[in-house]
Every structure is written in structure tokens, then in C-alpha cells.
Write a structure and sequence with these properties.
Blueprint (H helix, E strand, L loop, with lengths): L1 H13 L8 E5 L4 E4 L15 E4 L13 H10 L5 E5 L2 H8 L20 E2 L8 H11 L4 E4 L4 E5 L2 H24 L7 H8 L2 H14 L2
Parallel strand pairs: 5-6
Antiparallel strand pairs: 1-2, 1-4, 2-3, 4-7, 6-7
Helix pairs in contact: 1-5, 2-4, 3-5, 5-7
């Protein structure tokens, strides 16, 4: 699991999804998770410390990211999830700040949902209450954009979470480019259902690509 977390950190950095800020985590058993330290993810080395955080209590260990509450609240709300990443995808963030919804205009766009929800508070998630509010905005979705403050994506593994962050940014770019060229046409219900059914097949391939190019 440690190697997957370090691979997630390298991939998010190499593909321009984080700069100085961002973090990634993976569930550790039923009642804890491992999270990256509060340093630029691209600077992490295999020997660096990953922090274990308990889901059973809200007393946090020293040295964790200030926004660890993002992970704590989402893991508690969504027991089926095993990976979360917090990043700053630039185009997705810009579209949310402009009030432009991100919709699936290409097949892989379905992997982040029919329309990506937006958390409307631009402040950092520095407490339990804020974390729970973000988790509520996420709901059952695969990701949520934090207006003026980046995005969070989730998955059944940390690789799926990172892959969805990459897909989110690619989808945002396609939405932007399509709007500048003409009238965007989203996937219809049948097309969306088809592509949504390919999550388990295609996300691992995206994850392999991201790691190979990190």
C-alpha cells in the first residue's frame, strides 16, 4: 500500500494535477487510513513517513496535512472507498469558479459522473464540520470540485482516485474547448450508461499509464 501511495504522489505531480499543495490517502483496514505528509507531493521519497489516522476518533496525530479532515470525513461517510486524492486541477478549478458545469462530453468523462458537484465554500477544510460538509457535497459521486480551491476524487483504490482526477481535468479541458468551438453535446443516457459500466476495465489502464509516465 505504501508503494501505491508514493506512486499516487509522483503521478499527481508529474501530470500537473498538484504543485506545492495536495495530498493522497489509502484506507488502512476498516478503521484507519494512511496519508501523505504536508509537503509537495513531487518531493516525496520512498523513505518518507506516511501518517496513519484513526477513523474512530477525531483527535489527529501531529504532522498530518491541515486538510486531513477531507479524508477523515469522506472515509467515514463512504465505507466502500479505499482511496482519496486532493489536488488542484487548473482547468476544472477555473470552470467551477466561472460557474460552468463539467459534463461528460467524451466517453471517459462518464467516470466522474453526469455532472461533477461543486462545493461552494472556497476556504480550506481545516475542521471536522467543514470536512463533513464537503463529504455531503460529494454525496455518492466520484469527485467534487471545491470552488476556488481545487478538487477531490475518490475510488475503490488509490489508483482509481488518481485516475479520476486525471480524467476530471481532461474532461474539463474538453468542456472548455468544445464551448469555444461550438455547442457542447453531452453523452446521452444510453451512451453514459455504457461508458459508466467500463470504470472497472479502463481506470486500471489509466492508472498504469499515469505511473509509467511519472
Amino acid at each position: 500500500m505504501r508503494e501505491e501511495i508514493f506512486a499516487a504522489a509522483r503521478s499527481l505531480s508529474a501530470h500537473g494535477l498538484v504543485t506545492a499543495f495536495g495530498h493522497a490517502s489509502a484506507r488502512q483496514g476498516a478503521d484507519a487510513f494512511l496519508i501523505t505528509p504536508p509537503v509537495p507531493l513531487g518531493s516525496l521519497w520512498h523513505g518518507d513517513v506516511l501518517h496513519e489516522v484513526s477513523l474512530d476518533r477525531d483527535e489527529l496525530p501531529e504532522g498530518v496535512p491541515g486538510e486531513v479532515w477531507v479524508h477523515w470525513a469522506i472515509y467515514n461517510a463512504r465505507p466502500e472507498l479505499n482511496g482519496i486524492c486532493r489536488a488542484q486541477p487548473p482547468v476544472a478549478t477555473a470552470l467551477a469558479s466561472a460557474g460552468v458545469p463539467i459534463k461528460p462530453l467524451h466517453g471517459q468523462g462518464a467516470f466522474v459522473g453526469r455532472e461533477v458537484p461543486v462545493y461552494e465554500d472556497a476556504r480550506l477544510i481545516r475542521g471536522r464540520e467543514a470536512g463533513e460538509a464537503l463529504a455531503k457535497s460529494l454525496g455518492s459521486a466520484h469527485g467534487v470540485i471545491m470552488r476556488g480551491n481545487g478538487a477531490v476524487t475518490v475510488g475503490e483504490s488509490i489508483g482509481a482516485a488518481v485516475s479520476r482526477m486525471w480524467v476530471l481535468e481532461r474532461s474539463a479541458e474538453i468542456n472548455r474547448d468544445a464551448a469555444s468551438a461550438g455547442t457542447p453535446r453531452a453523452l446521452d443516457e444510453e451512451e453514459f450508461a455504457y461508458w459508466d459500466g467500463l470504470n472497472a476495465e479502463i481506470l486500471p489502464r489509466i492508472w498504469r499509464y499515469l505511473k509509467a509516465n511519472a
